[in-house]
Amino acid sequence: MRLSRYFLPVLKEDPAEAEIISHRLMLRAGMIQQLSAGIYNWLPLGWAVLRKVEQIVREEMDRSGAIEILMPTIQPADLWIESGRYNAYGPEMLRIRDRHERAMLYGPTNEENVTDIFRRHVQSYRQLPLNLYHIQWKFRDEVRPRFGVMRGREFLMKDAYSFDLDYEGARRAYDNMFVAYLRTFRRMGLTAIPMQAESGPIGGNMSHEFQILASTGESAVYYDAAFEDIDLAADEVDMERLKSLYAAADEKHDPDACPVPAERLRAGRGIEVGHIFYFGTKYSEPMRATVAGPDGESVPVEMGSYGIGVSRLVGALIEANHDARGIVWPDAVAPFRVGIVNLRHDEPACTRLADDLYGRLRRAGVDVLLDDRDERAGAKFATMELIGLPWQVTIGPRGARAGMIELKRRRDGDMAELGLDAAVERILA
Ligand code: P5A
Fold first, then answer.
1. Are residues 99 and 221 in the same domain?
2. H-run or E-run covering 187
3. Which residues partner with 415 through β-bridges?
4. Phi, psi of 136 (to 5 degrees)
5. Is 384 inside any structural domain?
6. Could you list the pLDDT tens digit for every one of the 429 residues in the chain?
7. In a domain, 259, yes or no
8. Which ligand 1 atom is at minimum distance from the Cα of 210?
9. Do 225 and 345 belong to one domain?
10. Is residue 305 in some structural domain?
11. What's the CATH code of the domain at 191?
12. Cα dist. 389→322, 367, 413 in Å?
């Protein structure tokens, strides 16, 4: 992409309304723009990151055996009356009437919707286990939307729903999602700490929150250092060990009763990016989602639901990856892998070299942003630092005449003067 043809409305000043760093940086880097409280436009750079995050979530869900569908954002109230949650959910739910005065709502979650799909199509235990997921916008009329996309009113969630014949099966489904979540966050370069949690309005009696570590996180967490090097590549992850590792939120952590030896206890700050629930027959019973078991007897199906805050993750990733000059994207979610700054677009040697490198990287399948604007060098560098692409290339008149460019790694500032071949090789490595 040529920056002269792109849409990147960066802000020079810190926006006054942003209280936390990720919100400030997302606004300044032209990633998002607020339309109404807690409701955001995703501009090209933000949308590019959101899509990358979404794709990693999707790939790990698919790998876990879950199957993607798409349920609508608008649901009929009837289903929620059937499950008994319509009144229980309260003012967080956006209630709507259509032209026929039928009660509708903008879905804050989809347990009822997916249970309805299930009961219409699945009758036998032989069709189990089943896990259906989608990635869809939700609306929750939060009392205090804040921190940008971290607590929005409209936000993108991945929500999966598992169906099993019995508790044992449901437990396996839960563990399977547990591991898929750790893999998902690790692929984004994040360390996620699973913690036992309250199940709130989703219900049930087994629930874990996944907190990713960031020094600016909302809540204090204490955890066993062993979380940092669990082998997630193995086909069979050791669930017993994984679940036995200690993790506790600030209010639950008791230094005197803590089972982890001091040298292995870590304290950090966390942001909740995922939440999983086992709730048995809470929805299947009132909604009559039953299957015939091996003995022919009809039983309500055992369920769980599993959420990841996809749009929240974009903010959380920035909280975990930034410095004084801007964002520092992990490779896996960077909107472009390389940014090229052509310092002198009026100098043929510079422009030729910039175009050459741009073309070669694109042909190799690399996303590149080329700053070909007629701007001061200082402004170009500031923009590149702010948007935090993993590799920065600077092309100036002196080097260009010798066919040399300067390659810098955003994360550690490591710098090298290289010819084109060597630069391309380093970037592709
Ligand atoms: C699980 C999937 C559920 O809704 N039903 C379907 C269950 N769980 S949850 O914990 O309420 O939400 C799942 C994740 O969504 C993110 N999230 C939000 N992100 C941005 N703004 C919000 N207002 C918001 N509310 C929830 C969180 O990451 C949460 O873990």
1. yes
2. helix 167-187
3. 408
4. -150, 155
5. yes
6. 999 999 999 999 889 889 999 999 999 999 999 999 999 999 999 999 999 999 999 999 999 999 999 999 999 999 999 999 999 999 999 999 999 999 999 999 999 999 999 999 999 999 999 999 999 999 999 999 999 999 999 999 999 999 999 999 999 999 999 999 999 999 999 999 999 888 777 777 789 999 999 988 888 999 999 888 888 887 788 888 888 889 988 888 888 988 899 999 999 999 999 999 999 999 999 999 999 999 999 999 999 999 999 999 999 999 999 999 999 999 999 999 999 999 998 999 999 999 999 999 999 999 999 999 999 999 999 999 999 999 999 999 999 999 999 999 999 999 999 999 999 999 999
7. yes
8. 30
9. no
10. yes
11. 3.30.930.10
12. 11, 10, 12
Say yes or no: 83 and 231 in one domain. Answer: yes
Closest CA to 306 of 58, 93, 133, 140: 133
- CB proximity list for 220: less than 8 A, separation 6 or greater: 249, 250, 253, 267, 268, 269, 270
Residue 263 lies in domain: 3-326
| CA-closest residue to ligand 1 atom 25 | 151
Domain stop point among 326, 356, 379: 326
Query: In terms of domains, do 231 and 140 share one?
Result: yes
CA 409/CA 412 separation, integer angstroms: 6
- 161 shares its domain with 246: yes
Using a 6 Å CB cutoff, which residues line ligand 1? 109, 140, 142, 151-152, 155, 157, 159, 202, 272-275, 277, 305-307, 309, 311-312
Residue nearest to atom 7 of ligand 1 (CA): 307
Residues 298 and 365 occupy one common structural domain: no
pTM: 0.96
